[in-house]
Design goal:
With about 425 residues, the chain is α/β, with parallel strands linked by helices. The protein contains 13 helices and 17 strands. It has two domains: about 140 residues, Aspartate Aminotransferase, domain 1 (Alpha-Beta Complex), CATH 3.90.1150; about 240 residues, 3-Layer(aba) Sandwich (Aspartate Aminotransferase, domain 2), CATH 3.40.640.10. Strands 6-12-11-10-9-7-8 form a seven-stranded mixed sheet, sandwiched between helices. It has a four-stranded mixed sheet with strand order 3-4-5-15. Strands 13-14-17-16 form a four-stranded antiparallel sheet. Helix 4 packs parallel to helix 10. The N terminus is likely disordered.
């Protein structure tokens, strides 16, 4: 019926026969990627990905890679986890987008909100669903201004909160910001984990926004006394505390939410990345009392067309269920310690780890680039940090097995040797 495709039919490109249909490898053309998709970097990875499963990514030619970065913190339960895929398919069979956020009652978003309500503190009982992490932070910043009537925002040096104007305004990497000024006014910066700077939080401050664990700065882990002092100072001054757990949440640190390590509760919590289990969704979580402020003065004070997309909600709900049902949190520390034991080398200047979130420091950016390139060539994906180029990161899926860890770490050690 379909016939046999010839090289001429494929315009000179090789092809794969799939169920008798010629699939042109032109679909993976570097020229198309480089010329017709907007670039974000002068040196993209350029790995053609045909499929992914578990901790593995696959090229069309069958070459496999162990994904030790989870798609930058997204695939927390692995790629295409069967339970997540099943939930997505079941929702697709019901309906896709039907209305802008907040107008129709949809079972799957109700279930997701109810599930979050069972795993979060009582004061974080309401969720505004959006499409990404930066959107979650935008909503949080607006909510803080609306609730307090104040304009000053305090963020941390070396932080990363996203790339939109508002999120960029409170991110601490000036190199990434300077071409896009002017940004939001009344933003001040403090040093992460520095107690003295907390005096800058005053009754003029609408909010403090900070990552519970600084990710892009190279996995910077605060001490418990500092986080409790931040919470105390915000409470004293009527300042709302926003904790950005877009990268460090959803089990990455060994707790479902990283703030649980510090015995504090934020006023506003932002989630994304791993929250969707592979689909785009973010969340601004707060009390119902706070979030209802978006409904009046003005009405529709915050609005999104695609936020709370039902298919993305199904994926997020299923991801939470996998973390719970497979008891993944109980395995995080053991796996993290194993990786830390296996990746030891004299060239490593420092290691920072919490759970399955790592930064390895080296003498120079050149060495880090060589390590990342060698590992990629030999089937393991690790990556660097935007704001700390002397380190490389790994943050594998929580579902990674002991044998997969050992295989990946052997390649990383070889990469360090060859660097």
């Amino acid at each position: 019926m379909f016939g046999k495709a010839s090289a001429g039919n494929c315009r000179g490109f090789p092809f794969l026969a799939v169920f008798g249909v010629a699939l042109s490898l032109m679909d993976f053309s570097q020229a198309t990627f480089l010329e017709h998709l907007a670039p974000t970097s002068p040196n993209p990875f350029l790995i053609p990905i045909e499929k992914a499963a578990g901790v593995f990514l696959y090229e069309p030619n069958g070459k496999a890679y162990i994904d030790m970065i989870s798609g930058i913190g997204v695939s927390v339960v692995g790629h295409r986890h069967p339970h997540v895929v099943e939930a997505i398919k079941a929702q697709v069979d019901k309906h896709l987008h039907v209305m802008v956020y907040g107008e129709y009652i949809q079972a799957v978003s109700n279930k997701l909100a109810a599930k979050l309500n069972t795993v979060l503190p009582a004061s974080l009982n309401c969720v505004y669903l959006v499409n990404s992490g930066t959107e979650a932070n935008e909503a949080a910043l607006k909510l803080a201004k609306r609730a307090t009537g104040r304009t000053e925002i305090i963020a941390c040096f070396k932080s990363y909160h996203g790339s939109t104007h508002g999120s960029l305004s409170v991110s601490g990497n000036e190199l990434k910001k300077q071409s896009f000024r002017p940004l939001l006014p009344d933003v001040r910066f403090i040093h992460f984990n520095n107690h003295a700077d907390l005096a800058l939080i005053t009754e003029k401050t609408a909010c403090v926004i900070m990552e519970t664990i600084q990710g892009d700065a190279g996995v910077r882990i605060p001490d418990k006394a500092y986080m409790q002092a931040v919470r105390k100072r915000c409470s004293e001054t009527g300042t709302l505390l926003i904790l950005d757990e877009i990268q460090c949440g959803m089990g990455r640190t060994g707790k479902l939410f990283a703030f649980e390590h510090y015995d504090i509760v934020p006023d506003i919590l932002t989630l994304a990345k791993a929250f969707g289990g592979g689909l785009p969704i973010g969340a601004c979580v707060a009390s119902h009392e706070l979030l209802k402020l978006f409904s009046h003065n003005p009405m529709l004070g915050h609005i999104t067309t695609f936020g709370g997309n039902p298919v993305c909600c199904a994926s997020a709900l299923a991801t939470l269920e996998v973390i719970e049902n497979e008891k993944l949190l109980a395995q995080v520390e053991e796996k993290g310690k194993l990786i830390e034991t296996l990746i030891q080398h004299p060239k490593i200047k420092a290691v920072r780890r919490i759970g399955l979130m790592f930064a390895f420091d080296f003498e120079s950016e050149i060495i880090v680039n060589r390590i990342v390139a060698y590992a990629k060539e030999n089937g393991v994906i690790c990556y660097w940090f935007l704001s700390h180029p002397y380190s490389f990161r790994i943050a594998p899926p929580l579902t990674i097995s002991e044998s997969e860890i050992k295989t990946a770490c052997a390649v990383i050690i070889a990469a360090i040797e060859h660097a």
